[in-house]
């Protein structure tokens, strides 16, 4: 009797007969639990109904026993694997809430449900699986093949267009043979995929596989056909563009280096002159202690005592010129960039010192003008008294 119930259950699943399922469960409410353990091929009635795409039958089984969504058949495939491979979007949507972790499970060939959907080109299912488990897209199948490799291998351009922008860092990933997507696309002569890869992604044409071959080398070994000509033209055109871009970049870099060296010569010259002016200021230095200026000492600038205000302005200006130029020379030798934090710091220091010097000069100018005006007034008053 028990064996008869199990056979009738599998027959109902194969036919999608929900009425028969309900009658069987009324006779034995534990039938679904028991049959999933005793089936010789490990396939549950849920597997069978999913293969056939019987949505209502799947719903009814899950209502009675949602744990069946987590069972594997003899190929290590869950019902979610089967629904994803067969393109049953609605079944995928009702399976996900009961077994979301199945997105990461691998069948006997190392493929998760997202891999299978990509291989079959089921774009809407891909979107649903990525939304539920985005990390599943980064899992590799056997032989280190990414989901992008599987798209190329099975000629699924639309699936590739969905996945490539989300997995940009895997565009140049290699499989166990060292092949990138481009190697594989050239090997199987997927012309449209090649055109998409070289035109819309950051695929590297110069990567070599484990045999030391670039994609163009694989093409040269194949038999000349119509696809051969198209693929060769695509790769050659991209290589010419790439070579031209590299040449232009090299010219720009050479020009920048030459200009940078010229600027460094000027910077060193300015720094040298400023340094020389600092150690040998105008007016010279005291050779011995001064008797005229009691505080003057040998080795100190004469100008600091004879014209103290002018000397202070000279020191400020000299520092403004010398400090950043010296800093730039140091940066050149230690490899700092022209946009480093140190550079910006010196620009700020230069600005502060310059503003400070201008303000100081304006104040001193105003003071001198007042003194001069006072002297003129005093002189005029004295002249009038004398008269």
Structure notes:
- This protein has 387 residues and is mainly α.
- Among the domains are: 1-139, Serine Threonine Protein Phosphatase 5, Tetratricopeptide repeat, CATH 1.25.40.20; 307-386.
- It contains 18 helices and no strands.
- It has helices at residues 2-15, 18-27, 31-38, 45-52, 55-64, 79-86, 89-95, 113-120, 123-132, 147-153, 157-163, 181-187, 191-200, 215-221, 226-279, 303-306, 308-334, 341-386.
- The termini are far apart.
- 26% of the residues are buried.
- Mean pLDDT is 79; it is low at 334-338.
Question: Secondary structure elements and their pairing?
Answer:
Layout: H1 2-15, H2 18-27, H3 31-38, H4 45-52, H5 55-64, H6 79-86, H7 89-95, H8 113-120, H9 123-132, H10 147-153, H11 157-163, H12 181-187, H13 191-200, H14 215-221, H15 226-279, H16 303-306, H17 308-334, H18 341-386
Helix pairs in contact: 1-2, 1-4, 4-5, 4-6, 5-7, 6-7, 6-8, 8-9, 8-10, 10-11, 12-13, 12-14, 13-15, 15-17, 17-18
For the structure shown, list the relevant keywords.
0% strand
Give the DSSP E fraction (strand runs of 2 or more residues): under 5%
- Succession of helices and strands: HHHHHHHHHHHHHHHHHH
The CATH homology group name of the domain at 1-139: Ankyrin repeat-containing domain
| Class inferred from helices and paired strands | mainly alpha
Gyration radius over CA: 41 Å
**The first-level CATH class name of the domain at 1-139:** Mainly Alpha
CATH architecture of the domain at 1-139: Alpha Horseshoe
CATH fold name of the domain at 1-139, please? Answer: Serine Threonine Protein Phosphatase 5, Tetratricopeptide repeat
For the sheet with most strands, the description reads: none
How would you sum up the global shape?
A: elongated
Number of helices: 18
Give unreliable regions as ranges: 334-338
User: What fraction, in percent, of the residue positions are helical?
Assistant: 55-70%
* Average residue-wise pLDDT: 79
In oligomeric terms, what are we looking at?
single chain
Distance between the termini: 148 Å
Secondary structure tally: strands: 0
């Amino acid at each position: 009797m028990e064996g008869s119930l199990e056979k009738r259950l599998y027959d109902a699943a194969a036919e999608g007969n929900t009425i028969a399922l309900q009658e069987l469960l009324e006779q034995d409410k534990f039938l679904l639990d028991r049959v999933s353990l005793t089936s010789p091929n490990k396939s549950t009635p849920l597997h069978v109904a999913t293969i056939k795409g019987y949505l209502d039958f799947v719903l009814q089984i899950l209502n009675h026993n949602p744990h069946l969504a987590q069972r594997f058949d003899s190929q290590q495939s869950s019902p979610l694997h089967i629904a994803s491979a067969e393109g049953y979007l609605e079944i995928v949507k009702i399976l996900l809430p009961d077994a979301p972790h199945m997105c990461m499970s691998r069948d006997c060939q190392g493929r998760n449900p997202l891999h299978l959907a990509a291989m079959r080109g089921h774009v809407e299912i891909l979107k649903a699986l990525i939304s539920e488990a985005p990390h599943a897209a980064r899992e590799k199948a056997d032989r280190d093949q990414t989901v992008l490799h599987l798209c190329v291998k099975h000629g699924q351009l639309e699936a590739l267009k969905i996945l490539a922008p989300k997995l940009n860092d895997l565009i140049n990933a290699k499989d166990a043979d060292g092949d990138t997507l481009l190697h594989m696309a050239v090997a199987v002569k997927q012309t449209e995929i090649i055109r998409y890869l070289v035109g819309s992604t950051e695929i590297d044409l110069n990567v070599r596989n484990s045999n030391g071959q670039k994609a163009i080398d694989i093409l040269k070994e194949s038999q000349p056909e119509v696809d051969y000509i198209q693929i060769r033209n695509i790769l050659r055109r991209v290589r010419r563009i790439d070579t031209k871009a590299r040449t232009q970049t090299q010219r720009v870099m050479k020009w920048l280096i030459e200009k940078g060296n010229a600027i460094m010569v000027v910077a060193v010259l300015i720094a040298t002159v400023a340094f020389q002016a600092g150690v040998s200021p105008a007016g010279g230095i005291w050779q011995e202690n001064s008797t005229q200026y009691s505080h003057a000492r040998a080795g100190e600038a004469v100008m600091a005592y004879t014209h103290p205000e002018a000397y202070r302005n000279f020191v400020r200006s000299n520092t403004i010129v010398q400090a950043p130029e010296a800093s730039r020379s140091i940066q050149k030798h230690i490899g700092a960039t022209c946009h480093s934090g140190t550079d910006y710091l010196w620009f700020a220091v230069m600005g502060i010192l310059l503003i400070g010097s201008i303000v100081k000069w304006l104040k001193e100018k105003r003071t001198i003008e007042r003194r001069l005006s006072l002297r003129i007034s005093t002189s005029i008053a004295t002249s009038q008294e004398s008269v």
